[in-house]
Structures are given as C-alpha cells and as structure tokens.
C-alpha cells in the first residue's frame, strides 16, 4: 500500500488491537473506518484510569501520624530506650 | 459536713505500657459531647488560655538570668505568634463545648472493681477527674495537650494514635473531619507547649537547676515555631550563677 500523500510505502502496525498504517516517508497515519473511534475509546479508558488509585496505606504509613513542622523528630517507632521506661512528670502536671 | 470521696488509683508513672490511652480518648470524647446548654447552671469560659498567660507572667517574674535568657525570649516569641485568644489576650472564638481545661495523666484515676462506690461513667474502669478548670471553650484545647506531647517527642506515635483513634471512635469532634488533626490542634498545641516551656523555665530558675529533658524539649519546640536559631541551651542558663 502506498501513502496517498507522498506515495511512499506504508507499514501496518497493531496498536491495542487497532490496525493502523503509517507512511515510511512522511510518517502520516492512515486509519480505516472505525479505527479512530476505537483509538479514542481506548484513550478515554486510559484517562479514566489515570491517575492510578493511591496505594492502600501500609502498616508503616499508618504507624506514623501527622505531626506539625515545629515538632521534634521522633526516633523511630519504638525508640532506643526500650519499652519499659516510665513517663516524665511533665505528663502529670498542669 | 463531710464529703466522701471514693478512692481512685492513679496512673503509674513507672508503667508506661499500662497507660490507658483508649480510656482517655473515650472519656474526653464523652465530655466534649455533653450539650452545654443542657447543663443545670451557667458554665464559665474554659481557663486554658488564661493559664498560658499566667505561665508567661511567671516566666517574666523569674530571676533575671533566666527571665532574660535566649530560651525565655524564644518562648515569648512563640507566644506572640499565637492567636491572641490562645494566650488569653482575647475571648476564645469558640465557647460551644464543655472542656476539661487542664488535661494531663494525673487527671485519670482507676476505680477498683472492689470499690464500694461503683463509678458511674467510667471507661474501662477509669475516671476523668478535677473539674477546677472546666468551662466552655474549643474542645481542641483538651486534645491539644497530648498532641503537644506527641509533637515534642514525649509521646510515641503509637500512643498518640491510640488516643486519637479512640477519641474519634467515641464521637469526639475536636480533631476535625479529615485524617490530619493538626489544622484544628496546631494553635492550642503551640499554646500549651509555650505554657509548659514557660513553667519549666520558671520552675528551674526558682531552684537554680538545669532544665529537665522534657522541659528542654518544650523550649526547643518554641524556638522551632518562630523559625529562630537552634534552640538555646537553657540548661546552662538555668544553672546557678554563684
């Protein structure tokens, strides 16, 4: 098949099940009847899927709650002090 | 005339694992859900912001080396950056909720199952006590105290998460609707951090001791609030000059 515009040979490609012909010379694309609609439909499906749904929060994300910018850096979930420590008395006073 | 008070077992400061975060969240949510207009008498404004102002006054009255220290300046600058109502300089914009006004772990007592006076309203056997500072206000003030402990590193993330989740599950609304409670908690949590820093500096100055780690953490947080230089070492400043 020759390109109707520049008469260079056209090559057939398969894009998502749609046959399209592209000219090897001017890179023009020739669509058969219904192929533009098929590609448009595929494109709209892709747009609806994007952006992909956010990943479900994993345990690591759930374990660290939001904190203000003026807050202190926490030293990991379990700290380095062991879990048998007590409370300072500030937590027990006004 | 005599008042009979049932005995309550306080939280043990030594046994951190036993701290009843869920019960605290449930009790606080229940308090905040009390309809203020249904109470038998008028309820005064919650005194939390006034206590911030009192703590700042106490810091101003502290011995000069501390009252004029970079640490004290950081605390006062953090205070000035607060909304006026949060440091007691203007009426609170919200007075629609019953608030405890002075929430801390010493305000929880356990009611033993063997008690002859079964405690009405207990959550898992725990009661919230001390209504001296109770009043109408923004319920975020109460939740902001443990929030400030978390923000300054005194509470672990999982302790704060347990408290916040229980509070929300029990119908507490002070943390707002979204996942992030800080839009609601930030101003009162900063105010309470300022209060704790001011009291820590004043108490340390009164006896000429260095700041404890938790007090220093509050001063450090105040310095970060205004984007100032790294928190000054108030421990040195609080040492006796003699």
Largest sheet of chain B: 3 strands, antiparallel
Mean pLDDT of chain B: 90
The main sheet of chain B orders its strands as 1-3-4
The number of helices of chain A is 2
Quote the distance from N terminus to C terminus of chain A: 87 Å
Biggest interface reads: A-B, 29 and 46 residues
Residue ranges of chain A: pLDDT <50 for 5 or more in a row? 77-83
Return the average pLDDT of chain A rounded to an integer: 73
Strand content of chain A: 15-25%
Shape of chain A from CA axes?
rod-shaped
Oligomer, anyone? heterodimer
Give the ordered list of helices and strands of chain A: EEEHH
How many structural domains does the protein architecture of chain B include? 1
What does it look like?
The complex is a heterodimer of chains A (94) and B (242). About 7% of the residues of chain A have low confidence. Chain A has a three-stranded antiparallel beta sheet with strand order 1-2-3. Chain A contains two helices and three strands; from the N terminus they run E-E-E-H-H. Helix content of chain A is 21%, strand content 16%. Chain A has a domain of 40 residues. Chain B is mainly α and 242 residues long. Chain B has a single domain, classed as Aminoglycoside 3'-phosphotransferase, Chain: A, domain 2, CATH 3.90.1200. Chain B is built from nine helices and five strands. In chain B, helix 4 packs antiparallel against helix 7 and helix 5 packs antiparallel against helix 6. The longest helix of chain B has 26 residues. The N and C termini of chain B lie far apart (52 Å). At the A-B interface, loops of A face helix 5, helix 6, helix 7 and helix 8 of B.
Quick recap:
The complex is a heterodimer of chains A (94) and B (242). In chain A, 21% of the residues lie in helices and 16% in strands.
Topology:
The complex is a heterodimer of chains A (94) and B (242).
Chain A (H helix, E strand, L loop, with lengths): L9 E6 L2 E6 L5 E3 L3 H15 L9 H5 L31
Antiparallel strand pairs in A: 1-2, 2-3
Chain B lengths: L8 E2 L10 H12 L15 H13 L3 H4 L2 H11 L16 E3 L8 E3 L15 E3 L6 E3 L2 H12 L5 H13 L12 H26 L5 H13 L8 H4 L5
Antiparallel strand pairs in B: 1-3, 2-5, 3-4
Helix pairs in contact in B: 1-6, 2-7, 4-7, 4-8, 5-6, 5-7, 7-8
């Amino acid at each position: 098949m020759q390109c109707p515009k520049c008469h260079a040979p056209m090559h057939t490609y398969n894009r998502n099940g749609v046959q399209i012909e592209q000219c090897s010379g001017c890179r023009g694309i020739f669509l058969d009847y219904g192929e533009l609609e098929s590609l448009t439909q595929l494109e709209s499906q892709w747009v609806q899927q994007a952006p992909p749904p956010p990943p479900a929060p994993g345990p690591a994300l759930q374990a660290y709650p939001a904190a203000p910018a003026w807050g202190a850096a926490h030293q990991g979930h379990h700290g380095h002090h062991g879990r048998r420590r007590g409370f300072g008395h500030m937590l027990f006073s006004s | 005339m005599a008042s009979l008070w049932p005995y309550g077992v306080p939280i043990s400061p030594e046994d951190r694992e036993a701290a009843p975060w869920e019960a605290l969240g449930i009790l606080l949510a229940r308090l905040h859900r009390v309809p203020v207009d249904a109470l038998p008498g008028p309820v005064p404004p919650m005194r939390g912001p006034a206590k911030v102002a009192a703590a700042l006054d106490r810091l101003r009255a502290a011995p000069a080396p501390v009252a004029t220290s970079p640490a004290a300046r950081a605390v006062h600058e953090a205070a000035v950056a607060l909304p006026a109502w949060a440091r007691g300089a203007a009426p609170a914009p919200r007075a629609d909720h019953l608030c405890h006004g002075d929430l801390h772990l010493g305000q929880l007592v356990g009611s033993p199952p063997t008690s002859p006076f079964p405690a009405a309203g207990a959550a898992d056997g725990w009661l919230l006590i001390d209504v001296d500072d109770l009043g109408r206000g923004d319920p975020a003030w109460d939740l902001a105290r443990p929030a400030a402990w978390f923000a300054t590193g005194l509470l672990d993330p999982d302790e704060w998460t347990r408290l916040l989740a229980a509070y929300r599950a029990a119908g507490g609304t002070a943390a707002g609707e979204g996942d992030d409670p800080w839009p609601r908690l930030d101003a009162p949590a900063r105010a309470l951090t300022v209060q704790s820093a001011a009291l820590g500096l004043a108490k340390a100055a009164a006896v000429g001791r260095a700041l404890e780690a938790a007090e220093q953490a509050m001063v450090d947080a105040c310095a970060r609030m205004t984007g100032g230089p790294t928190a000054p070492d108030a421990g040195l400043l609080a040492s006796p000059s003699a």
